[in-house]
Design a protein that fits this description.
Distance between the termini of chain A: 32 Å
Structural class of chain A: alpha/beta
Strand content of chain A: 15-25%
Number of strands of chain A: 11
Radius of gyration of chain A: 21 Å
Radius of gyration of chain B: 12 Å
Bound molecules: iron/sulfur cluster
CATH superfamily of one domain in chain A: HypD, alpha/beta domain 2
Number of helices of chain B: 1
Order of helices and strands of chain B: EEEEEH
Oligomer: heterodimer
CATH topology of chain B: SH3 type barrels
CATH topology of one domain in chain A: Rossmann fold
Helix content of chain A: 25-40%
Chain lengths: 365, 76
């Protein structure tokens, strides 16, 4: 790591030399960024006046509770093979005591729930089980939605459908800034979302909201370079969009991936768990692709549940996702809620800020 | 999920490449970078089984240094 460490140290030294005369709050919107920041211990070595806030960077955390409930029903009542990324299995829903509260619990009760790491695995399962209906439950941002679009465009067996909870990242940031109450001073934009969608997608932050913004990769070097960029922009009062991940990110991104997204999906208003509906923030299947919509293929019987759609009682995940509180400010953090016994989605997912902070050693005060 | 893993291409069969990282081999779809010039030996950034973009060996090494660090920190 010596070479990288060296350049990371150089960026750190430059940041320390900046004439910062007031506290600054910088938000990152990517679970991968948060993981690097936490695991490399970057917050501890930065000047105290710099606060880096984890934002809406966890697709599992904002996956609607109703979609999870539908996935559980598909697996239990409709008896389909339910495949999902591993993170989704342990996310709890609000179900009365004694009832099935997660896909993992459904599996323990005999349902055919299978974790996968890629769309190809979902397709392979559908091929191997031609007589069964297979539903692929997809929560993810552009980095996952584009591969799912590619999977459908490449062709999938007829017994495979998707239950989509796929989201776009920038509309959530726009929502935070638009309401006028934001106290953010700058933004670090997600590197792999920008690899697909292009750095330019984040230009609105500088243009419309006059805030500094930089796209970052995941190494300490790239993250510190982006941080230095936004701090300098802030000091000089000249916000612009900087690309600090030019190794992978171009201004206009991966055009082929964008073409696949546009072919298979349309952009729709979408529910974010605990937050509400955000306009133009979800992917829905377009026209002919709707024959792969699990909701159109299967009749999903929904039971009324108390607190449906909400976060679990006492869980502040929505506030954590919106950057309003730090994970360890939740009353349950590290007490009732730990990774081996998660109360909310932010403690389940690898990209959830609560899980990442716990893994990085942050304990309740 | 968004972290991505750099992998080296060891074989290409149309839109599917066999890729390797840290001694582990996996099939990776090249469907999203079908227009990119790719050869055995090249490095790609892989996310959920799909190559997002071609990358240099040096950049792949830098990310693996980070992943090693995170894995070690997580295990500690
Ligand atoms: S610590 Fe647990 S209960 Fe609190 S916000 Fe995080 S996931 Fe929710």
């Amino acid at each position: 790591m010596s070479e990288t460490l060296h350049t990371a140290q150089t960026w750190l030294a430059r940041i320390r030399q900046l004439p910062l005369d007031r506290p600054v709050a910088v938000m990152n919107v990517c679970g991968g960024h948060e993981r690097s920041l936490a695991m490399l211990g970057l917050r501890a070595v930065l000047p105290k006046s710099i606060r880096i806030i984890p934002g809406p960077g966890c697709p599992v955390c904002v996956c609607p509770e109703d979609d999870l409930a539908d996935a559980i029903t598909l697996a239990t009542a409709n008896r389909v093979i339910l495949v999902a990324f591993g993170d989704m299995l342990r996310v709890p829903i609000n179900a009365p005591k004694g009832q099935i509260r997660s896909l993992a619990a459904a599996r323990e009760a005999g349902a055919d729930v299978r974790p996968v790491a890629s769309p190809q695995e979902a397709v392979a399962i559908a091929h191997a089980e031609p007589r069964r209906e297979v539903v692929f439950f997809v929560a993810g941002f552009e980095t996952t939605s584009a591969p799912v679009a590619a999977m459908l465009a490449e062709g999938v067996p007829d017994n495979l459908t998707v239950l989509l909870a796929a989201r776009l990242t920038w509309p959530a940031v726009e929502m935070l800034l638009r309401d006028g109450h934001s106290t953010l001073d700058a933004l670090i934009a997600p590197g792999h979302v920008a690899t697909i969608m292009g750095a330019n997608e984040w230009g609105f932050i500088a243009e419309r909201y006059c805030l500094p913004v930089a796209v970052a990769g995941f190494t300490g070097e790239s993250l510190l370079a982006a941080l230095y960029s936004v701090l300098r922009q802030s000091i000089q009062g000249e916000p612009f969009l900087d690309n600090c991940y030019p190794e992978l990110v171009t201004a206009s991104g991966n055009i082929e991936a964008q073409r696949l997204l546009a072919e298979v999906f349309e952009i729709i208003p979408a529910m974010w768990r605990g937050i509400g509906i955000i306009p133009d923030s979800g992917f829905g299947l377009r026209g002919p692709w709707q024959r792969y919509d699990a909701r159109l293929r299967h009749v999903i019987r929904t039971e009324s549940r108390p607190r449906a759609g909400e976060m679990p009682p006492g869980c502040d995940c929505a506030a954590v996702v919106l950057g309003q509180i730090a994970p360890d400010h939740c009353r349950l953090y590290g007490k009732a809620c730990i990774p081996s016994h998660p109360i909310g989605p932010c403690m389940v997912s690898d990209e959830g800020a609560c899980h990442i902070w716990w893994q990085a050693g942050v304990r309740p005060g | 999920m968004c972290l991505g893993i750099p992998m080296q291409i060891v074989a290409i069969d149309r839109y599917v490449a066999t890729c390797e990282a840290q001694g582990v081999q996996r099939e990776v779809s090249l469907f999203m970078i079908a227009d990119t010039d790719l050869a055995v030996g090249d490095y790609v950034m892989v996310h959920v089984g799909y190559a997002l973009q071609k990358m240099t060996h040096q950049d792949a090494r830098t990310v693996w240094d980070l992943l090693d660090h995170i894995i070690a920190a997580g295990a500690a």
